[in-house]
Automatic annotation (TrEMBL):
Lineage per the UniProt record: Bacteria, Pseudomonadati, Planctomycetota, Planctomycetia, Pirellulales
Gene Ontology terms: biological process: adenine salvage; AMP salvage; purine ribonucleoside salvage
Keyword Transferase belongs to the record: yes
Transmembrane domains' residue ranges: none
GO cellular component: a single term: cytoplasm
Protein name in the entry: Adenine phosphoribosyltransferase
Domain Phosphoribosyltransferase: 37-162
Length: 191
């Protein structure tokens, strides 16, 4: 079995000083590890009757679509403003400096459909909390949230209550590094 943790590369001070960036690209490039990651993200939800996987761009898309296929579900994209062409639900949320916004098509989810939210990483929880608020506007039946990485030091799981949160790899933050979420950055170039 692939050692997933060994394929997460730590990059100190990226994208700015003080941030410890958890780089998933070595794992993505390894065929066995990618397969294993998708299997482990899907495992608790195999019998959950998931109709649709929803995920936010960009890294959420990497795992959202293969998870949907693994679960026999459809895929619905959640995107930044200006990217979806039809009628929209929008949710603006606070970053440390400024705001961000996510959107979903109003007909992306039918009321009562069972939805799994997927992302590569949970830090402050701001991104997936925004996804959950959008799914609530669609009257979705959210079965849970699945992540590859959970940076526990940011307390993001509390923002996702009462939903079921599953993560494959947990980072406790006790490695002594001053870990910061890149969500807590000043607005700047997209990374
Ligand atoms: O729990 P949070 O504090 O919200 O942080 C996690 C989010 O941060 C990253 O996305 P980012 O906004 O950097 O965009 P990207 O997927 O386009 O790289 C990551 O892919 C998660 O979506
Ligand atoms: N420390 C971090 N590494 C990689 N992606 C992130 N998204 C939010 N915080 C992050």
């Amino acid at each position: 079995m692939a050692n997933l943790r060994s394929l997460i590369r730590d990059i100190p001070d990226y994208p700015k000083p003080g941030i410890l960036y958890r780089d998933i690209t070595p794992l993505l490039a390894d065929a066995d590890a990618l397969h294993e990651a998708v299997d482990q993200m899907a495992a608790p939800f195999l019998d959950a009757g998931v109709d649709v996987v929803a995920a936010a761009e960009a890294r959420g898309f990497i795992f959202g679509t293969p998870l949907a296929m693994r679960l026999g579900a459809g895929f619905v994209p959640i995107r930044k403003p200006g990217k979806l062409p039809f009628d929209l639900h929008s949710f603006a949320y606070q970053l440390e400096y400024g705001t961000d916004e996510l959107q979903i098509h109003v007909d992306g989810i039918q009321p009562g459909q069972r939805v799994l939210v997927v992302d590569d990483l949970l830090a402050t929880g701001g991104t997936v909390e925004a996804c959950l608020r959008l799914l609530e506007k669609c009257d979705a039946d959210v079965v849970g949230c699945s992540f590859l990485l959970h940076l526990e030091a940011f307390g993001g799981e509390a923002r996702l209550e009462p939903y079921h949160v599953h993560s494959v790899l947990k980072y406790s933050g006790d490695d002594g590094e001053a870990e910061l979420s890149i969500q807590n950055r000043e607005p700047g170039p997209s990374i």
